[in-house]
Design a protein that fits this description.
single chain, alpha/beta, Enolase-like, domain 1, TIM Barrel, 2 domains, 9-stranded mixed β-sheet, 3-stranded antiparallel β-sheet, 13 helices, 14 strands, disordered C terminus, binds magnesium ion
């Protein structure tokens, strides 16, 4: 069976967009995440997710259309590489790469449905059938943070990452108070991670701040220190990894597998964190994961995105010999309310890897319509129901 691509549609999500912690603030109406639906002549369709706006995905689809129209829909790696190489002069590593990410994920979904196999098996085989999600939240003032953490623990998470302001933006004393509050709230058995959010605009701190803060974090048993430096400070990360007494991580803003080569080959991190909805999809992420694995660096997916991104991360981490976590932004309607069967943590705080064909997701198209403003997106139609 050869399935040919007949259409690719961009589906924006907005209305309850989770705050990303950026300085300029975040309106829930902002469209930061966009689904793509790839349709084929055999009636099989696939779903992908892009960490960018519908305007940029739609513009990218116009650019990419001559290269995907009528193409074989069950050769994800070849077709994604064709899309990258055919558009190198526009958006290389930028918005076009973000759009290709969603297309690639959808193509793996189609390949799985066409062959009756879960994506994890198609990626090479399943080393595990469940994995620990870390609940991801933003830092806040101590008392608000305490309540947020209690909420995450009550939802069954055994690992929690706190990120961004006010950590690193006010004072050393407040930073320590936040981490102390967090440890006291969740107790010794819940893993805690800290994300400084050094990719924020005009990040003020350098290497010395990062080293001193790392020494404080280790006193509270923090599992890793993320984005302690700006995302392009390769030499800073190399030094920090050597000096810090806990694992150092970054990588969420990088795109294209080639961008990761110096970070991995020069040993800039303990854990590398590509986002499957930005980096180029599962095809690109798998190659980064294996390069990292062969340098004894753990891939921990960045996943501040959607149910589709989370499902892709579950399949990818299932197919790696060593994997420990996936990121799970919580709460998020774009994870919980766009699928017919929501993700459910077991009593160990682990998530099962989907076993149904493809990504193993049943999309709730009414749920998608609620946040896209597009009615009947599941049935090929495209009609705006609200502005
Ligand atoms: Mg981060």
């Amino acid at each position: 069976m050869v399935l040919k691509i007949t259409n690719i549609q961009a589906i924006p999500l907005h209305g309850r967009t989770p705050d990303s912690g950026w300085t300029q603030g975040m309106d829930p109406g902002e469209n930061l995440m966009t689904l793509v639906k790839v349709e084929t002549d055999g009636g099989v369709s696939g779903i992908g997710s892009c960490y960018t706006s519908e305007a940029l995905v739609s513009a990218s689809l116009r650019l990419l259309r001559p290269y995907f129209a009528g193409e074989c829909a069950i050769e994800p790696e070849r077709l994604s590489e064709k899309l990258h190489q055919s558009t190198f002069w526009q958006g290389r590593g930028g918005a076009v790469a973000h759009a290709i990410s969603g297309i690639d994920i959808a193509l793996w979904d189609i390949l799985g449905k066409a062959t009756g196999q879960p994506v994890a098996r198609l990626l090479g085989g399943t080393y595990r059938d469940r994995i620990k999600p870390y609940g991801s939240i933003l830092f806040d003032e101590p008392e608000v943070l305490r309540k947020k953490l209690e909420g995450v623990v009550s939802r069954g998470f055994k690992a929690i990452k706190m990120g961004w302001a006010p950590f690193g933006r006010v004072s050393r004393e407040l930073d320590e108070k936040l981490v102390k509050t967090a440890r006291e709230t969740v107790g010794p058995d819940v893993e805690l991670m800290v994300d400084a959010g050094g990719s924020e605009q005009f990040w003020p701190h350098g290497y010395k701040w990062a080293v001193e803060t790392a020494r404080m974090l280790v006193d509270y048993g923090v599992a890793w220190f993320e984005e302690a430096l700006p995302p392009d400070d390769l030499d800073g990360f190399i030094k920090l990894r050597e000096q810090a007494p806990l694992p150092i991580t970054t990588g969420e803003v990088l795109t294209r597998r080639q961008s990761f080569i110096p970070w991995i080959e020069r040993g800039a991190v303990d854990y590398i964190q590509p986002d499957v909805t930005k980096v180029g999809g599962l095809s690109e992420m798998r190659r980064i994961a294996w390069l990292a694995y062969d340098h004894n660096i753990l891939l921990v997916p960045h996943g501040w995105n959607t149910a589709v991104g989370l499902a892709a991360d579950l399949h990818l981490t299932a197919a790696m010999p060593v994997a420990r976590w996936v990121e799970y932004i919580t709460p998020s309607p774009y994870i919980e309310e766009i699928v017919a069967e929501p993700f459910t943590l077991d009593s160990d705080g682990l998530l099962p890897v989907p076993t149904k064909p493809g990504l193993g997701l049943e999309i709730d198209w009414d749920g998608v319509a609620r946040y896209s403003g597009m009615r009947a997106v599941g049935r090929g139609g495209k009609k705006r129901v609200r502005s």
